[in-house]
């Protein structure tokens, strides 16, 4: 995600060349996350595809070339992809959590439930950020509220990702133990 955070600075560094900044960030994500992209991980694939799409769109409709519009697109794509994964019982966090976990655990209902819950937390975050990015276009003077709301939602999803699995299994062992 670090290359994505550099995007607005790259636009400025490249003298406002939105397409080049988008392609550069997509390339950086591809380099940093090559193995995840090769395996078709949803988040990285959505980011790279959206950035390349926005670079192409910016060539034909330069008025749409803004970091704000890109955030709307990215969070929209991440929201839809994430919620579709939940709907079809394939939470995207399974892609990340399987590494280093034995097959019996990976096939358990508990493993799925933990990942489904964490994916839902991230989908709520993506959806909130989608709304915040949209609202920020109409209420520019309130930009600090939108930035703080965005960062807080990402922080909460990150904490849930870290804390929820242990809390879930601690709770299960105390109830069944």
Describe the structure.
81% of the residues lie in helices and 0% in strands. The protein has helices at 2-5, 7-13, 18-32, 34-38, 42-60, 67-87, 93-97, 103-106, 109-138, 143-176. The mean pLDDT is 91. It is mainly α and 177 residues long. It folds into two domains: 1-65, no CATH class; 76-177. α2 (7-13) packs across α3, α3 runs antiparallel to α5 and α5 runs antiparallel to α6 (67-87). It is globular. The chain is built from ten helices and no strands.
Query: Given the helix and strand composition, which structural class is it?
Result: mainly alpha
Radius of gyration: 18 Å
Helix % is: over 70%
Order of helices and strands: HHHHHHHHHH
Q: Give the distance, in angstroms, between the N- and C-terminal Cα atoms.
A: 40 Å
Low-pLDDT runs: none
Mean pLDDT: 91
Largest sheet: none
DSSP E strands, number: 0
Give the overall form.
Answer: globular
